[in-house]
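Quarterly update, task 2.4: protoporphyrin IX containing FE-bound model.
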Amino acid sequence: MTWTLVLVLLGVLSAVLFLYTRRTRQRNEPPLDKGRVPWLGHALEFGKDAAKFLTQMKDKHGDIFTVCVAGHYVTVLLDSNCYDAVLADTQSLDLTHYSRLLMDRIFNLQLPNYNPVSERNRVDQYFKGCDLSRLCSSMQYSLKFLMASVNTKNPTEWKKDRLFDFCYSLLFRAGYRTLLGTENNNSAEFTEVYERFRQFDKILPKLARRSANRDELKVASSAQKRLWELLCPNWFLTGTETHSWMQTYLKHLEEQGLDTQTQRRAMLLQLWVTQGNAGPAAFWLLGFLLTHPEALKAVKEELCSLQHRPLDKTENTPVLNSVVNETLRLRAAALITRDVMQDKTVKLSSGQEYVLRHGDRLCIFPFLSPQMDPQIHHQPEKFKFDRFLNSDGTEKSKFCKEGLRMNYGTMPWGAGSNLCPGRDFAVCALKRFVFMILTQFDLELCDCNARMPPVDPNRYGFGMLQPDGDLEIRYRLKKRIA
Ligand code: HEM
């Protein structure tokens, strides 16, 4: 019996080694880097700190290369001028399979009729035109309401907090009210949704990579189960907000004949997609302002000239826009993944052509290029509040690399069919949040020499990065001058 087991194991191992060593680089294929460990390849380095690993690979191989990651061959493309053309070929590059895999791994969700393209058209309609204006006003109203209640006992006394939690909880709560349009005003339940969501969100990258340990799996599973209970479809279907984002989504799920349990799981996915990025973005935005006094001064001067009118789309705020763009350039780091369905030729900006092999995966990482590319951005790791401003103070959108005009200087919202449909709403919410904080509150660092915490390297690939650490702040309502 024992010998049979040993023989079976040896057989499996030899098959893995055979398959691993068999792969060689073919003519016109990108440089191949299998790593030292058979089958596993570069999985550990990739999962631990994708930005560091891919930078090393870029330095070694250039803008395109293929790496082995846990039995898969992944071609990484880092020439941002050809992203759009490559992603447009949806016949050769499929989005569905990998999206389904992540939905299942993270949210235990299987949507039998899931079609990312029609799903996308539906979502795009919601965040445009009149709906967008309505959402922005509703967000402003919710932020105002929540900020008025942050420190009701002694509003003009200093109150201490941690910046990440301060920003995440405010943006999450305001976004929840706006997009979910729930009538449930139970504040304890609302707080529990936020706390459980944070527990789940902390472990999410590990769930996606299947690297969570037993304790983490337990926490994630219990948070997920409680959130499924708390996200009750009936509340959202009877809310006063007749066309809330969640109502529209739930009706769509009902039309597809999905049961209540699947609807709840899908709601958690939507909650994460719509609420998981704005809070962390607000943290980095305020954090960079508080640790860069020259930037804070420039933004305050610009906002002052608006005479405390609410920010809307017509307001001209090039300095604040530049700060938002610079923050997102430094801290938005989504990975775009596709399955290669048939051999496909990719043409780089240099004119050189490479073949992507059928059965491999393609990964695009805008964080490394264009966002952190030193040939596009001087000292890319530094926060420069005026990086997106021309010398005459207008907004800068033209960026070059070795004399070649770049299609994009930054791509925080993804690309192709992965472009974030909520981007205009997110910018509007971030700007209004900063405007309200700076005009209605005195907000400062407890330690005026404090530095920005480093990023948590575990989160590369999952939208906005999160900090490994925090900033202690104190705030109070501004005293009104009679
Ligand atoms: C700074 C904040 C944000 C950033 C950096 C961001 C970025 C992104 C990115 C990169 C994606 C593509 C992810 C992928 O397909 O792999 C995405 C998807 C999405 N985002 Fe955002 N997002 C932000 C805020 C928001 C907000 C506030 C909303 C909601 C109002 C939103 C709604 C969505 C939706 C619904 C999708 C999924 C689209 C689909 O299924 O195709 N995002 N976002």
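Highlight for this quarter: The radius of gyration is 24 Å.
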